[in-house]
Every structure is written in structure tokens, then in C-alpha cells.
Amino acid sequence: MKKPDSLVFVSIIVPVYNREDTIMRTLHSIFDQIYRPIELILVDNNSQDRSYETCKDFQDKYSHIFFRIKVIQETKKGANAARNAGLAIATGEYIMFFDSDDIMYNDCVANVVGDLIIEKFPTATAYPFFIKFPDGTLSRRPHIYSKKPADQLYTTIIPTHGICIKREMLNEIGPWDEQLERWQDLEFGFRALLHIKDLNWFTAKPLYEVQYHDDSISGNSYFTDHEKLYASLIKIDAVIKEQVESKHKRKQQRALCYKICSVASQIRKEGHPELGNIYLQKALQHLPKSRRRLATCLLHFQFNYEGKGGRGFWKIARILI
Questions:
Q1: FRET label pair with 318: which of 6, 23, 74, 165, CA 20 to 30 Å apart?
Q2: Is the confidence at residue 217, as pLDDT, over 60?
Q3: Per residue in 148-201, pLDDT tens?
């Protein structure tokens, strides 16, 4: 085997919080990667169970020159703070982020690196995944293999764990926003797509499993978390406003309005129509002047259609809005 520094060196950053019961399954799925070298950075984020000790035990048992394991603690609350702490000590040429309860297929990193080599080392490669439900069934999440920032707002095309990025590009994109508590990947992915001009997609097959369970922040209701969700959208709005006027900027503005309206319609669906209507009005207020009449009609339709349980409207919205 070649020396580690003669190959593509990949750092994988995993925030850990109270995952004592599931973390070993995740860690072994990363250790079982057929590709080397890998740097695994585990960032414990104030766990109240034995997650930190479990990570340290794993480090003691499995760390070596081709699979370097770093375990640190970040006391500032939140996965974003943990990701930033891990990024600060990462030494890999490319960075991957992963969650502490998900599963990598053993050829995940090999496929990613192979894709990077074939495409002559683009700034980033993105890749699809499966969602695994408690009954064991797998569902392939619908993906748009797109490079457009607006598409991130119609359906999250760059989730936390679905992209491998050059470490130097992350300095340009900026850190994870530690003030955000929901839709952090939506906001981070949007900024990433604004900066990455040569994103490549690995489309052959999903490379990992996201474990769907109740003990997940993404399972919280829109009504319960509406302020947290909207905070992420306001951050994205600020990034859009910084751009010069163009058709791409206006497309992003309309996509943002769609996303605000999706919050409105889901709140309505959960039985809170008055609050839902408030968010519908927020969506309408953000619309740019161009194509405003058509977009207004479509957002009203979205609010009623999705608010009554309709699905898949994003496929129409990204074309017409």
C-alpha cells in the first residue's frame, strides 16, 4: 500500500450527542470503508451518557496511520459548533460531514474518491442516500442532480452528509452558522452552491443510509419549530440580498418564497391555519417584482394544496415560480 500522503486524504467529521446506543454501529460503518487513508474526527457535544468514553475507547482500539481518529469535546451547544470545532483540526484535503446515527456503505468513500479522480478533482462531489425506516424498509430520497442554489430551496439537494468538499473551499464558504437550530444543512448547502462552480454528482447509487427515528430533531413539527425554521430562511434571504441584480438572484428569491410558503402550508396541515396564513403573507412579501402575479397565484395554490396534505408541488414550483 502507498504511503497515506500519496493518496487523497479524506477527513470525516461526526458530531456526537447522547448516542451511546447507536454510535458504535456508525463508527464501525466508517472503519469498514474499503478506502484508506481516512481521518475520523469525533466531536462530543456535552453528551450526558457514555458517548465520549465510547468514542475514546474506539480511538484507542482502531486508530492507526491509515485510519487516524481524533476525539475532542466541544462545550458550545449545537451540532454546528461541533462541526466547526472538528473542521478547525481537520487535515484532510477533502472534508465529509456525517451524523452519529447513520450508516455508511463500505464503498462510500471509495466511490467518492474514485469520482473525484475521474473528474480531475473538482471542488466538491455530491451523492445520494437511502432513508431507512424503523421497519427496515429503504426509500431512495428523490434527488435533483443540480448545481443551482435555487434548487436547494425547492428540495434539499445538499444535505449535511451528502457532499465531500475541498477543505480550502470551506474557508471561502464560511463556517456552519452556530446560531441556527433547524435547517442548518439547507442554509449551509445554499451557501456552498453559491461558491462551488464545479460541483460533480455521483449518481450511480446511494452511498449511505439515514436512519429515520423519533429521536431526531428533524422529526419536530413545523408549528413547534416555526421560529427556528424561519431564522434559517432569513439567513438565506440575507445572503441572496448581497448579490447583484440578475435573473439568478430573482430565481433564488422566488425559491425562498416557495420555502417560506412550505412552512406556512405545513403549519396549516398541523392544525394551525391562522399562524400558517401569517407565514403565507411573509412569503408573498418577499416576492420580487418580476413574475409576481404568477408567483402569487402559485403560492396561494401551494398553501391550500400542501395544507390539505398534497405532496410533490416542488416539482411544479421550481419550473413555474
A1: 165
A2: no
A3: 999 999 999 999 999 999 999 999 999 999 999 999 999 999 999 999 999 999
Output phi, psi for 111, to 5 deg: -65, -40
User: pLDDT (tens digit, 9 = 90+) per residue, 228-254?
Assistant: 999 999 999 999 999 999 999 999 999
Q: How many distinct structural domains can be found in the chain?
A: 2
Does residue 47 sit in the same domain as residue 179?
Answer: yes
Residues 181 and 245 in one domain: no
Same domain? For 168 and 253 the reply is no
Residue 201 sits in the same domain as residue 229: no
pLDDT digits (tens, 9 = 90+) for 1-56: 344 455 899 999 999 999 999 999 999 999 999 999 999 999 999 999 999 999 99
CATH of the domain at 105: 3.90.550.10
**238 grid coordinates:** 440575507
Range of the domain at 129: 4-218
